């Protein structure tokens, strides 16, 4: 038993690296390589072509095309009264990502406050399902958002009853940013809640006794302890929204195109060198940001966990409590959250029960049953898709947890290059899904000839591996802070008692970071359930189809007319199955924790 | 012809992390399996693909039809060819003009075999739809791009120029020509109307009048149904889905701008290295038969490609054909279409 | 310096041998070059102010720090490159460091799974035996959160001792406890150590604790060893001014040897020196006089071994007074067992033989 853990570690690392190389680095490398290599020769031409194109980089293009004229241009710009500068497609993409990040944090933080500091019925449930938006296919989010925020949507109806509106946000940057907040604010909430719950009450009490009013104590004591979690969530949100793709065109239109939208069009036209170059620049920017962040995080890691945890306040504590400004703020926030999160999801359920004329219908669910009953070739059975999703989700969770923990071990290791290694190992977050999909197609699906046999890497196990790779960075982001928060002397004590390093990890550290592992597991599961791009490529036929693949197929089905009814019904099923799974993961995890 | 079937074995690697599905060639006893490559929604319960499979199999008892569906359409096969990866299908179904142009531009040798003359019934295809001068691709159906509008909100948009009027401000939804078939067709239609030198200016004015360019047809149509705008670029078959007493037909009016519709024919072609070229041609012939044409039209909600076929039923009654069909030919698109679309997209994004 | 190590006669084998150890943290040197021999069965204390490097030295013995140079041997075996788990040491930290998710019994028994104990004792029996030893019988099923600070520390001690380590390492084990408990537990640790005869290295910043508990003391300051000796010698005959000042509130006087060779010239006064010493007249000299060597008494005017000082503050210690006086520009500390506190101007009398030359 004992010797096993120590032998398992190198085997685990080798297995993880092999999987990463096969399912991630090799496919991605095969695509991005063409950004710097033409005909086997290294070249900067594609990069120079993109960076020097004002369409992509705006005013910054002259950095590449005419660096010598820069001072002169700068002076001219200052003399012109420093007008707004256009930085092209990359500039706009970064701009909308920045706005999305700010809004996501602004929406996500009060949620963390609510979940971490107040006790109310359903809190555990709410916490479990915070990351539900993560699994929602963008087409359904678009449906939900149109129903909520559209010209004739719920919000405008509500505004009209009080004599306001209408507000037209559809096809504007605003609704794209709101949709980004829908996806990413829950990430902020989930990560910050965990940090908030571990704030040592004694430090807050000390500040209060020293004369700090509650808000000051929050700013001076609590907030600094939340900063690493907020920054983690911000960096992730920025990267996700920088790489945002389908939701932009679905809600905002081509005028608001991001780099990723453009990249997708290049792939469709098979302009692969330009696509690879865009992908390489995106990846370099994202990885650079991750690296800078990790360097910062390393300076922030502090030992806590010995502290006294604060007890939660009851949210509703008699009628008098309602006038408490904190609670008033929380109630107001609940209203916002209801519109932004609950609204689109409920709209989706409503849509699945409504005909385009607004009449009640069960046709879309009957459609699902008919698909289930059909034995026709090429038909995706909903039940099979549910089972596939759950199995792949479970498989991805089981794989992603050890992978994520291994990277966390690297991350918490004090050593030169650890940050760099961690940034590289976080790369699955930083690579465009389109680039990865293209790479998988060209390497894993097309295959390669070995000893006269065509080897391809597809099917369920490849899908699970791809999901695990997409998911493990989330495990790492949850586990690293927890792991570095463990008192080093616990590790020292165990080693002095004779346990080797891997054994200490299994015996002491992992049980102590159970909450972070559970959160990581939930993320891993959510990523797997929501994954579409790689799944549909690697599935090869309908036998390995998952819920999102079924849903996509049903959107193209016209047997009930040109509407998304069948997709919304499948989406409702997806919501229900995922909600159940999250609750199960949390419950199971908590039992294990005890 | 030695047809080889490929068995896929999922083999767990040592770590159990990756499946290596090796394709082990085993010769099958007869050359009677026809592999049809198509986009994924071509097959499934009640689709044209499944009807074709069972009808063809009962007509040709020794043949078995299998489908190979791809998410990336013909692009996957272009890339397979350019990388030297095997193509295990005999024919491709669902190819349009732009895609054929792309395939020919990307590859030195043609992906498809010239077989048009040798396919029974190919002479019955409407000549206006025939888009491959090399005779490789045979059209089997077509859609006509038109506007669908809400007659209670706006008057019928009769011409391209009326779309620029204030009445239609913020009322038109279309799709990204870079990724969507109807969106691309609509863009090509405007080029056809305004000329390669004038279309960008026209689109500038469309943009000023608040046209919205969404990702794909489904998204745009959903937004139309949610009353985000009262016109959407769609197909002239709209009323096939929406007719009858419980439907507000004013919301499903079809507008043929300048009395035209842009034809977007879909074709099929045999891969050059097909294992079963004869069977592939037989299948293509079958697809052009009157019975199959009627079924494809009904199930795909597209017009038959063959002259004189009346699908009957709801389709026959409610599908509207434009007074005049326009489309760009292969030769007109070659060397131009990429630049036209690229210039257009750059202009839209930059504004 | 004639005092002998009580253990050097009974045992002459060395349990821990440290040769020229240095530890760097980045650009900061924590330990310069330390060499130490710790005798088998000895209670050896590393004492010094915080940040002096004593904990680093202890962790180097445990293998928890990697020295940049030097050698560590335990029981004659070179363990310099061995990981902690291969060194057979037991360690106890100030903050107890009990595994919070394990019961008391599982904590104590944790190390047993990695060790084959002589006599093949049943692990459960061994755990019970150790809980008995630290006076916590029947506590096995509790969780660490249910224990008081003192109980936690005794569990930590039991856990460290369970696998029968060659060396017991204690890192400020009592610092988190209140004074009464600290004194009590100190005795308990000392008793257990003596009963088991286990070589123990103890780290503390508290000189009183070091004096009370140790067989030998190493005073460490700024990463270097100042003095290694018995508690008595370190206390009475500190090797340097730094040691003198650190080991209890010593009175230190600086000056030079007077021409007669019998006095120290300091603060414009002459203080008598011991009869025999080896310092030449005119050389500069620092001496120390312990507070208990000064006696508050009336005596003849003009006696050189008398300081005429003013009382500034008096602390009542129960069995004595600690009197803070001012003599000339210097603060002078006196301990007196008098029944009433001195006040005003007092005469501080001392025996020249109690003046310690540094």
TrEMBL record, chain A:
Recorded protein name is Iron ABC transporter permease
Name the protein family. Belongs to the binding-protein-dependent transport system permease family.
GO cellular component terms listed in the entry, alphabetical order = plasma membrane
What does the entry give for GO biological process?
transmembrane transport
Query: What's the chief localization of this chain?
Result: membrane
Task: Write out the transmembrane intervals.
Answer: 7-28, 94-116, 128-150, 162-183, 226-252, 272-294, 330-350, 390-411, 423-445, 510-529, 564-585
> Keywords assigned by UniProt?
Cell inner membrane, Cell membrane, Membrane, Transmembrane, Transmembrane helix, Transport
Among its keywords, does the record have Cell inner membrane? yes
Task: Report the superkingdom from the record.
Answer: Archaea
Residue ranges of domain ABC transmembrane type-1 in the record: 90-291, 386-585
Gene3D superfamilies, sorted: MetI-like
Its placement in the membrane is given as:
Multi-pass membrane protein
Q: Where in or outside the cell?
A: Cell inner membrane; Cell membrane
- Which InterPro entries does the record cross-reference, listed alphabetically? MetI-like, MetI-like_sf
TrEMBL record, chain B:
Q: Which Pfam families match?
A: SBP_bac_6 (PF13343)
SUPFAM superfamilies in the cross-refs: Periplasmic binding protein-like II (SSF53850)
Q: Name one GO molecular function term.
A: thiamine binding
**Presence of the UniProt keyword Signal in the record:** yes
Q: Which UniProt keywords apply?
A: Signal
Q: Which GO terms describe its biological process?
A: thiamine transport
Origin: domain of life: Archaea
Transmembrane stretches, start-end: none
Q: Determine if Signal is one of this entry's keywords.
A: yes
Q: Which PANTHER family match?
A: ABC TRANSPORTER SUBSTRATE-BINDING PROTEIN, THIAMINE-BINDING PERIPLASMIC PROTEIN-RELATED
What protein am I looking at? Answer: Thiamine ABC transporter substrate-binding protein
TrEMBL record, chain C:
- E.C. number, please? 7.3.2.6, 7.5.2.13
Quickly give the catalysed reaction. Answer: L-arabinose(out) + ATP + H2O = L-arabinose(in) + ADP + phosphate + H(+); tungstate(in) + ATP + H2O = tungstate(out) + ADP + phosphate + H(+); D-xylose(out) + ATP + H2O = D-xylose(in) + ADP + phosphate + H(+)
Instruction: Please provide the record's keywords in A-Z order.
Output: ATP-binding, Cell membrane, Ion transport, Iron, Iron transport, Membrane, Molybdenum, Nucleotide-binding, Transport
Topological category with respect to the lipid bilayer: Peripheral membrane protein
Q: Where in the cell is it found?
A: Cell membrane
Principal place of residence: membrane
Q: Does the keyword Membrane apply?
A: yes
Q: Taking every annotated instance into account, which residue ranges of this chain make up the domain ABC transporter?
A: 16-247
Entry keyword rRNA processing: no
Listed GO CC annotations? ATP-binding cassette (ABC) transporter complex
Q: Which Gene3D superfamilies match?
A: 2.40.50.100, Nucleic acid-binding proteins (2.40.50.140), P-loop containing nucleotide triphosphate hydrolases (3.40.50.300)
Show the PANTHER family listed in the entry. Answer: SPERMIDINE/PUTRESCINE IMPORT ATP-BINDING PROTEIN POTA, SPERMIDINE_PUTRESCINE IMPORT ATP-BINDING PROTEIN POTA
Query: What does the similarity note say?
Result: Belongs to the ABC transporter superfamily. Sulfate/tungstate importer (TC 3.A.1.6) family.
Please give the name of this protein.
Answer: Molybdate/tungstate import ATP-binding protein WtpC
Q: Which organism is it from?
A: Halonotius pteroides
Taxonomic lineage from the root: Archaea, Methanobacteriati, Methanobacteriota, Stenosarchaea group, Halobacteria
């Amino acid at each position: 038993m004992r010797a096993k853990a120590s032998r398992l570690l190198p085997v685990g690392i080798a297995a993880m690296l092999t999987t990463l190389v096969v399912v991630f680095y090799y496919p991605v490398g095969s695509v991005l390589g063409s950004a710097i290599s033409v005909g086997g020769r290294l070249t900067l031409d594609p990069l120079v072509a993109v960076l020097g194109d004002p369409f992509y980089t705006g005013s910054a293009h002259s950095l590449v095309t005419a660096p010598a004229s820069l001072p002169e241009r700068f002076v001219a710009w200052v003399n012109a009264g420093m007008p707004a500068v256009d930085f092209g497609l990359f500039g706009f993409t970064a701009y909308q990502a920045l706005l999305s990040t700010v809004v996501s944090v602004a929406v996500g933080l009060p949620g963390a406050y609510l979940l971490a500091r107040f006790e109310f019925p359903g809190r555990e449930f709410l916490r479990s399902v915070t990351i539900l938006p993560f699994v929602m296919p963008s087409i359904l989010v678009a449906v939900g958002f149109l129903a909520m925020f559209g010209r004739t949507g719920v919000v405008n109806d509500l505004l009209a009853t009080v004599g306001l509106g209408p507000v037209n946000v559809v096809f504007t940057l605003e609704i794209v940013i709101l949709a980004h907040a829908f996806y990413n604010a829950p990430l902020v909430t989930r990560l910050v809640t965990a940090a908030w719950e571990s704030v040592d009450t004694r430090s807050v009490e000390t500040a209060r006794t020293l004369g700090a009013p509650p808000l000051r104590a929050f700013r001076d004591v609590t907030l600094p302890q939340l900063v690493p979690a907020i920054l983690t969530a911000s960096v992730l949100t920025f990267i996700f929204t920088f790489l945002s793709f389908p939701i932009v065109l679905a809600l905002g239109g081509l005028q608001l195109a991001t780099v990723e939208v453009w990249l997708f069009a290049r792939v469709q036209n098979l302009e692969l060198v330009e696509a690879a170059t865009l992908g390489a620049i995106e990846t370099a920017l994202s990885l650079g940001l991750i690296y800078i962040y990790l360097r910062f995080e390393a300076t922030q890691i502090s030992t806590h966990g010995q502290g006294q945890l604060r007890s939660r306040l009851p949210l509703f504590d008699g009628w008098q409590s309602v006038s408490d400004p904190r609670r008033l703020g929380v109630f107001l926030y609940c209203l916002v959250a209801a519109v932004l999160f609950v609204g689109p999801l409920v709209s989706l359920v409503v849509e699945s029960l409504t005909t385009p004329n607004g009449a009640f219908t069960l046709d879309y669910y009957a459609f699902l049953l008919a698909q289930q009953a059909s034995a026709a070739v090429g038909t995706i059975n909903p039940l099979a898709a549910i089972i596939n999703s759950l199995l792949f989700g479970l498989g991805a969770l089981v794989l992603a947890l050890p992978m994520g923990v291994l990277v966390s071990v690297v991350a918490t290791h004090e050593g030169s290059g650890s940050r760099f290694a961690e940034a590289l190992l976080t790369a699955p977050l930083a690579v465009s899904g389109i680039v990865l999909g293209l790479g998988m197609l060209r390497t894993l699906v097309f295959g390669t000839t070995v000893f006269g046999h065509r080897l391809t890497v597809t099917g369920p196990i490849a899908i699970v591996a791809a999901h695990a790779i997409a998911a493990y960075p989330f495990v790492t982001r949850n586990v690293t802070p927890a792991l570095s928060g463990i008192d080093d002397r616990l590790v020292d004590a165990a080693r002095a008692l004779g346990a080797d390093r891997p054994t200490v990890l299994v015996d002491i550290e992992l049980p102590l970071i159970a909450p972070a592992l559970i959160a990581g597991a939930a993320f891993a599961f959510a990523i797997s359930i929501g994954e579409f791009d790689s799944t549909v490529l690697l599935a090869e036929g309908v036998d390995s189809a998952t819920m999102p693949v079924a849903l996509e197929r049903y959107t193209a089905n016209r047997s009930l007319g040109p509407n998304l009814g069948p997709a919304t019904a499948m989406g409702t099923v997806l919501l229900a199955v995922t909600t159940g799974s999250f609750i199960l993961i949390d419950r199971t995890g908590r039992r294990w924790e005890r | 012809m030695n047809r080889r079937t490929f068995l896929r074995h999922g083999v767990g690697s040592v770590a159990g992390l990756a499946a290596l599905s090796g394709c082990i060639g085993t010769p099958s006893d007869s050359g009677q399996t026809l592999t049809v490559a198509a986009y994924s929604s071509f097959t499934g319960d009640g689709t044209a693909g499944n009807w074709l499979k069972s009808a063809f199999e009962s007509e040709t008892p020794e043949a078995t039809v299998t489908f190979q569906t791809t998410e990336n359409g013909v692009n996957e096969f272009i890339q397979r060819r350019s990388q030297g990866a095997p193509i295990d299908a005999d024919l491709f179904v669902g190819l349009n003009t732009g895609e054929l142009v792309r395939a020919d531009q990307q590859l030195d040798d043609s992906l498809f075999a010239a077989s048009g003359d040798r396919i029974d019934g190919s002479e019955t295809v409407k000549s206006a739809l025939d888009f491959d001068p090399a005779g490789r691709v045979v059209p089997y159906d077509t859609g006509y791009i038109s506007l669908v509008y809400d007659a209670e909100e706006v008057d019928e948009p009769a011409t391209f120029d009326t779309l620029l009027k204030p009445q239609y401000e913020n009322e038109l939804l279309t799709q990204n020509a870079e990724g969507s078939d109807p969106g691309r067709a609509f863009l090509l239609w405007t080029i056809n109307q305004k000329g390669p030198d004038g279309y960008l200016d026209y689109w500038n004015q469309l943009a000023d009048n608040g046209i919205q360019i969404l990702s794909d047809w489904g998204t745009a149509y959903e937004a139309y149904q949610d009353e985000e705008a009262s016109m959407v670029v769609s197909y002239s078959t709209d009323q096939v889905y929406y007719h009858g007493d419980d439907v507000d037909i004013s919301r499903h009016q079809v507008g043929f701008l300048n009395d035209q519709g842009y034809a977007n024919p879909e074709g099929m072609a045999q891969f050059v290295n097909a294992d079963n070229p004869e069977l592939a041609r037989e299948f293509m012939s079958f697809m052009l038969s009157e019975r199959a044409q009627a079924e494809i039209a009904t199930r795909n909600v597209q017009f038959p490609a063959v002259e004189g076929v009346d699908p009957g039923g709801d389709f026959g009654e409610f599908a509207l054909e434009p007074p005049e069909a326009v489309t760009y030919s292969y030769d007109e698109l070659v060397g131009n279409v990429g630049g036209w679309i690229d210039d257009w997209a750059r202009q839209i994004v930059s504004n | 310096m004639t005092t002998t190590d009580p253990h050097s006669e009974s045992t002459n084998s060395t349990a821990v041998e440290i040769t020229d150890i240095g530890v760097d943290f980045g650009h900061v040197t924590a330990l310069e070059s330390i060499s130490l021999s710790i005798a088998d069965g000895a209670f050896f204390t590393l004492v010094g102010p915080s940040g002096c490097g004593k904990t680093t030295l202890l962790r180097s013995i445990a293998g928890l720090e990697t020295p940049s140079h030097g050698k560590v041997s335990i029981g004659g075996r070179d363990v310099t490159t061995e990981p902690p788990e291969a060194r057979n040491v037991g360690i106890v930290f100030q903050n107890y460091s009990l595994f919070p998710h394990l019961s008391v019994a599982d904590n104590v028994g944790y190390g047993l799974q990695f060790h084959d104990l002589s006599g093949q004792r049943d692990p459960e029996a061994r755990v019970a035996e150790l809980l008995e030893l630290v006076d916590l019988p029947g506590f096995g099923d509790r969780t660490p959160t249910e224990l008081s600070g003192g109980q936690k520390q005794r569990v930590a001690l039991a856990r460290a001792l369970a696998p029968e380590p060659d060396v017991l390492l204690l890192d400020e084990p009592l610092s988190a406890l209140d004074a009464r408990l600290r004194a009590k537990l100190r005795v308990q640790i000392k008793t257990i150590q003596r009963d088991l005869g286990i070589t123990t290295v103890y780290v503390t910043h508290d000189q009183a604790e070091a004096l009370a508990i140790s067989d030998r003391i190493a005073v460490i300051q700024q990463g270097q060893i100042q003095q290694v000796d018995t508690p008595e010698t370190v206390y009475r005959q500190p090797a340097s001014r730094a040691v003198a000042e650190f080991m209890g509130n010593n009175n230190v006087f600086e000056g030079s040897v007077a021409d007669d060779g019998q006095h120290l010239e300091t603060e414009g006064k002459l203080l008598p020196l011991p009869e025999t010493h080896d310092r030449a007249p005119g050389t500069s000299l620092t001496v120390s006089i312990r507070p208990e060597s000064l006696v508050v008494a009336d005596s003849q005017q003009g006696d050189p071994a008398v300081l005429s000082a003013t009382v500034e503050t008096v602390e009542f210690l129960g069995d004595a007074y600690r009197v803070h006086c001012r003599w000339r520009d210097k603060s002078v500390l006196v301990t007196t067992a008098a029944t009433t506190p001195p006040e005003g101007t007092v005469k501080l009398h001392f025996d020249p033989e109690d003046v310690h030359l540094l």
